[in-house]
Amino acid sequence: MAYWLLKTEPDAFSLADLKAAPNGTTVWDGVRNYQARNFIRDGMKVGDKVFIYHSSCKVPAIVGVAEIVNGPYADPSQFDASGDYYDPKATAEAPRWFSVDVQYRETFNKPVTLQAIKADPAIEELALKKSGRLSVMPVTEQEWQYLCGIASK
DNA sequence: GCCAACGTTGGC
DNA sequence: GCCAACGTTGGC
Questions:
Q1: What is the side-by-side strand order in the sheet with A49-54?
Q2: What is the tens place of the pLDDT at every residue in A62-78?
Q3: What's the CATH superfamily of A3-152?
Q4: Which of A 21-50 have CB under 7 A of nucleic chain C?
Q5: Which nucleotide is the nearest neighbour of A128, by CA and C1'?
């Protein structure tokens, strides 16, 4: 099993929205960055755990946990000509973008804020700290355990 | 295949 | 809303 971090803008789709969704499950679509795409397509497996991170908001933070319950599979939004994520170069035979289904697991009582992550010398290697713009990134088991520990304090 | 221009992300 | 960082595009 692997660990990941997924960013979302809570104004558009929050962890609370995921919790309230049917079965607490949603398709994680609209990722349009190749590095992020490669993590989804080549790395993600059913059963992997993911941190949900709220970005572009008052207090950017890791706010809880979800789990991958389906996929990866071709992101359906790339074929929707009327949608914002349409990609005219993508075909069913050669899809360009990929999705997984994620299911709600947990909301942290104490979210791990970006401020705390940046200030913590023990979290030197977390990708969130280094490459701020990536929307899908791997998390090591050590980082996962450490961050869960902070969130439960 | 280089690189300048451009667009997007996301913290502040 | 500003702007730095950085990914993508397209001319050459």
A1: A25-28, A98-113, A61-74, A49-54, A3-8, A136-139
A2: 999 999 999 899 999 99
A3: ph1033 like domains (3.10.590.10)
A4: 33-35
A5: B10
